[in-house]
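Listing S7. Sequence submitted for prediction.
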Amino acid sequence: MVKVALLIGISEYEPGLNPLPAALKDVEAMQRVLSDPALGGFEEVKTLANPDPQTMQFEIETLFSGRSKKKALGLFRMVALFPLISTRYLT
């Protein structure tokens, strides 16, 4: 079974949101673990640092396209800050 991973770290945001520098460090650490044959054993570990939305979409689609569920294990991990845009309460 082929093991592939896509790790995305987003540390830079629009004005008004604080940067998240640990996101890239987390991606680098995860890459080392997954790439180590004794730990993760992943044959392919791709990382993206602060990608634009189009690049991110392309890489996610590429990771999973053309791979058989029985012959491949895919891992997708994204480290990012997701700000709360709005809040709704049910009454």
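Caption to Listing S7: primary sequence and predicted structure tokens for the chain studied. Residues 84-91 have pLDDT under 50 and may be disordered. The beta strands are 2-9, 44-49, 72-79.
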